[in-house]
Design brief:
mainly alpha, 6 helices, two-stranded antiparallel sheet, about 40% helix
């Protein structure tokens, strides 16, 4: 075994990635972030047909690690007009959240993007899409 085969250095960031990160951070700091009530969270999970005692990713069904903005806050380095509120947030796993990035959820979920639910051949994808459409 060669040690070089197991080593993978982090890729250096491109200046466009840094600009994008700064823009997202700036927009996130100035847009409203509305804390949901218990009732709003309960309604959200009911609409998405998710069990709060065994919370799964709304996109793929894996274990939840975070909540994702269903509609991006920033697109083409400009605010989209959406804010951080329960109606724009869904439970997600890290793979889905990172793969989706700032794409519109429906374009992404049905795309061949790396780690998208379609690419990973997620079971019952059409049902998940229907739930997200109703929620949206």
């Amino acid at each position: 075994m060669r040690y070089k085969d197991v080593f993978k250095a982090p890729k250096p960031m491109k200046i466009t990635e840094i600009t994008s990160t700064i823009t997202k951070s700036f927009v996130s700091s100035i847009i409203p972030s509305i804390e949901p009530t218990e009732q709003e969270i309960e309604e959200c999970l009911k609409m998405l047909e998710l069990d709060p005692n065994n919370l799964c990713c709304a996109y793929c069904g894996n274990k939840v690690t975070e909540w994702d903005h269903l509609r991006p806050l920033v697109k083409d380095k400009k605010p989209t007009g959406y804010i951080s509120e329960i109606r724009n947030l869904v439970p997600a796993c890290g793979k889905c959240n990172q793969s989706k990035g700032n794409k519109y959820w429906k374009d992404w979920i049905e795309s061949d993007a790396k780690l998208s639910p379609k690419t990973r051949q997620v079971k019952d994808l059409e049902k998940k899409i229907e739930r997200l459409e109703r929620y949206e």
